[in-house]
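Please review this one.

:::
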Amino acid sequence: MPASSTFSALLRGLVAALGAILLAACGQQGPSFNATDITGARFGSDFSLTDPDGRTRTLADFRGKAVMVFFGFTQCPDICPSALIRAAEVRQMLGADGERLQVIFVSVDPERDTPEVLREYTAAFGADFLGLYTDVEETRRVADEFRIFYRKVPTGGSYTMDHTATSYVYDPAGKLRLAVGYQQDAASVAADLKTLLQSFPAH
């Protein structure tokens, strides 16, 4: 066989081999979720907030657990309680793995959501659900970091709050993985959590 033909054959073989490698790499996809997979998101990497006992809490405090974070306010008439009821149902559906899910409620209304109010509110949905807060200025900064929108809406002599209704889920390594929409049902969220936790065996 002429040298040019040999070279062409080798080149075609190399291209075919590279193509096969690339196709195999493309096929190595991560797990499929019902919620929006935001793995690698460059926001919401951490927080430093206060719990009802006055302790500063960060995501590192919950390493080893999946963490579900929801921003809201205790006088919310529907969206917030619905999100927390769903979180409680998810924990129940997870069975023994329910203890590996920490639910965190971050107040966007620190003027009214005092430590005691937060404690009583979150306990109504789950004994170890945790309410966190900070001052008005820092609340805005944290919300912006997590891409959470909120604003006061006057209602006569008082006010309510408009806010984003998304829940964020972190894996046990502390990485932001999922954005759970308000309309997603508990069963599909639980399925997502099961899939996520399978990658992090309990010790």
Observations:
- The chain has a mean pLDDT of 89.
- The chain has two domains: 1-30, 36-198.
- The beta strands are 36-37, 49-50, 56-57, 66-72, 101-107, 130-132, 150-155, 158-163, 167-170, 176-180.
